[in-house]
Amino acid sequence: MIPHQIQIPIPIPIQPLVPCPIQISRLPFHRTTPKPSNFRLSPPKSQSTHQTKTQDDGVPADDVKIIAKFRSRYNYIRVLEVSKKVDHPFAGARLLLLDGPGNIHSISYLFRSLTNTYFDAFATLPPILPPGPIGILGFGAGSAARLILDLYPEAVIHGWELDPSVIKVAREFFALEKLEKSYPDRLFVYVGNALKASLKDGFSGILVDLFSKGSLLSELEDPNTWEKLRQCLRKGGRIMVNVGGSCVEAEDSRRDGKVVMEATLKAMHKVFGKKLYVLSLGNRKDDSSIALTGELPDLDDWKRALPRSLKFYVNMWVPYSG
Q1: Phi/psi of residue 314, each to 5°?
Q2: I need a labelling partner for 28 at 20 to 30 A (CA). Which of 34, 104, 202, 251 fits?
Q3: φ, ψ dihedrals at 269, nearest 5°
Q4: CA atoms of 136 and 292, how far apart (whole Å)
Q5: What is the helix, strand, coil percentage profile of the chain, to 5?
Q6: Are 10 and 41 in contact (CB under 8 A)?
Q7: pLDDT at residue 282, as a whole number
């Protein structure tokens, strides 16, 4: 998230279900997008001057279409579509928002898999895993799953999502149903508590992307949670985690994103010790971060196994310093 960027949010021209207006994302560009992040609207085109847009800039309100909006048992669900014609990195994107502040939980484009977001960093995990299935805890609309299935022909994914309404929306508006039909032996989606996810022979790797009401789950601040997840791994398995950061806006103002991120990393450190690495996204160290467990692999080998568009992530990992 770029500091000191002036935003001029305005309400979407329909009656909101909560006091907070939907906002346009303040995600940094160049594939360094944290998640969740806020979706902020800029003034209509008639009130703004033309300049090159980045993800930190607002999208004009008349270039955003709401295609679904309702409350489920767990979330305030909105599906937004950004015009293909708008001068903005999100042009043509479909976005899933799940909480009052308007944090983005999934993003997809019609003609490309890469998202220029941290989901792309998630897609660097398979080459450094032992053989076996990958678990996604916090499946959302399937952004990470789609990328991995497209990039790695041998990958098998088991995804967990608590809210059945999110999966319904994913199938209807994010082509999840098509994805499931395309990969019937490689993609398995479950509705239920992701922290109770398990497979008989364990996971080769686990992606953790668990947020509720705009904040990381409080359970992730407990070392016991990470010990249980560690026990779900096969030998040599790893966990990659979206730990959020200062860019994350929670419904509860007491759940400061940076503080929650630090508490989560400390809990992970108690279980994984020196085998914990952090990749910082955005322009400030605490903007948003991804964590990785296990010994850092040979970086050259890792790069060779990745598509060119993802290689740069490899050199961004640093040991967790506490």
Answers
A1: -60, -40
A2: 251
A3: -65, -35
A4: 14
A5: 25, 25, 50
A6: yes
A7: 74
Long-range (24+ apart) CB contacts under 8 A made by 148-152 are 148/122, 148/123, 149/179, 149/182, 149/183, 149/186, 149/187, 150/113, 151/113, 151/123, 151/126, 151/307, 152/126, 152/127
Decide: helix, strand or coil at residue 238.
Answer: strand
- Nearest alpha carbon to residue 28 among 117, 131, 127, 121: 117
pLDDT in tens, 264-297: 999 999 999 999 999 998 766 558 899 999 999 9
Token representation of residue 176: 């999840």
Average pLDDT estimate for 151-168: 97
DSSP state of 101: T
Integer angstrom CA distances of residue 122 from 119, 239, 314 = 5, 10, 11
Query: Strand order in 64-71's β-sheet?
Result: 64-71, 76-82, 93-97, 104-109
Token pair listed for 51? 């300049």
* Token couple for 224: 């016991």
pLDDT tens digits for range 223-272: 999 999 999 999 999 999 999 998 888 888 899 999 999 999 999 999 99
Q: Is 30 exposed, middle or buried (0-12, 13-18, 19+ CB in 10 A)?
A: exposed
**Residue appearing with tokens 């850092």:** 296
Nearest CA-CA partner of 26 in 317, 312, 288: 288
Q: Where are the alpha helices (DSSP H) in the chain?
A: 118-122, 143-151, 164-173, 176-182, 223-230, 257-272, 299-304
- DSSP letter string over 26-66? ---SSS---SS-B--EEPPGGGS------TTSPEEGGGEEE
